[in-house]
């Protein structure tokens, strides 16, 4: 296990071959990559080397990526939620016993005042994507529709818990692992989804940790965010397109989410006191009024190489029945309801979703110390999962 974090929702390498004629294709392709890199990598006031090999650029707020979005040319960036944001805090959750999430790049320096840290995108990052156009998007770009249990024909597989209603936020404590991922184009993640709208126009805000060699070039567990406002036809990871507005100097990307009832913005918050950033409400036509579904759990992609199920692990790689210290978990699950009140989820009859129970599963329960919780995960291919 790598670490453990409090997530508070307050509110492989594939390069497409081509025939090169007189270098024209290569020149055009390189020019497109250079243009994308120039767009993504803003001028840095200061650059800091990450122990993982990347570069963190400290970008002045006047060059914030949000200003690349046509809707936000004149946007006034919020540094914290409007009004009484203290009421988003769940005082019943004691975080003294939790490990505060840190990022190791900060041991090599800090970003100056009025700047934000952004992971520098490299040419290699873009080349690992299926295409330049698909860089930063979920692949394949499909809606994770709820299929019948034990469906064997899906690329995306899940072990999740879901509640329905009208919500302003949610939270959980998630432990972080480093699962085995069989091939670069596959990933393994644990996250929360906040959703609203019909499948064809689905609005989602997503946050969690993932191991995704095809995106990041290694097998480290990394924090990520994702959003879409139109059923995954657009939207992106992290800052690969303008949408998420980071404001914190200590986190390159980060932890939890809250809905600011005055502005409608969705805030990402860590350990109840660190505001990471927000998604402006104008990005969404459904989520701006609240989420109708909240989902917690694990997801993997399975490309069935040689017609066999992937060996990619979900969570720790252990089934839910293996329990504490062996299986992954989400605990202290709560929702922030339409009356701006923290509530446990067990009164709402949570809905399970398991794609293939012989590959990955989930086990939900309630107890006083952990509140509503579940263990989840699995090894992928095994004697009963082929």
UniProtKB/TrEMBL annotation:
Domain Neprosin PEP catalytic: 148-386
Superkingdom of source: Eukaryota
Pfam families named in the record: Neprosin, Neprosin_AP
Keywords from the named record: Signal
Gene3D superfamilies, sorted: Outer-capsid protein sigma 3, large lobe
Signal peptide: 1-23
Keyword Signal: yes
Keyword set includes Heme: no
PANTHER family per the UniProt record, alphabetical: NEP-INTERACTING PROTEIN 1, PROTEIN, PUTATIVE (DUF239)-RELATED-RELATED
Official protein name in the record: Neprosin PEP catalytic domain-containing protein
Natural source organism: Brassica napus (Rape)
